[in-house]
Amino acid sequence: MPPEREPVRVGVTGHINLTPATERLVAEAIRLELRRISDRPVHGVTCLAAGTDQIFARAVLDGGGTYEVVLPAPDYRDTIAPAARSSFDELLSRATRVLHTGHRTSGTAAYVTANRELLSRVQRLLAVWDGEPGCHDASTDRTVGWARERGIPTTVIWPTDARRSRLG
Prior knowledge:
Layout: E1 9-14, H1 20-37, E2 43-46, H2 52-62, E3 66-71, H3 76-79, H4 82-93, E4 97-100, H5 108-120, E5 124-128, H6 140-149, E6 154-157
Parallel strand pairs: 1-2, 1-5, 2-3, 3-4, 5-6
Helix pairs in contact: 1-2
Protein name: DUF2493 domain-containing protein
Organism: Verrucosispora sioxanthis
């Protein structure tokens, strides 16, 4: 019997501010894409931000896969909207590994480091991205650009009728 093949390592980047309807569309699109790219469970890499990252982690688990988490800084949980923190806590507890960037506080520099670390650990990237340019160096568009520069196959997911919610 041949040895079991290693799982495909898939990372995620994407928007945190998705409407509830878009979250459902994105969840289904991610599940379909994970099945399309691998005939075996995947090993995901995520920062577990609200929105895309948490949807991705659940899809990986639903498909029988595992994931690791790259935390930008020790205070990262505090940057997540209170409504998403219990989900963050539950998903963090299910990670096979938690990595830290070395930054002491969250912010753009920590997020850039986390995104670059994520890319160093994956063979593929899924990007839930509306195609619009971001407003800082850790935006989804920047991570997609870095992945493409590194030759990491990147799938952009933005379902028809997907919308971003307005942040207060």
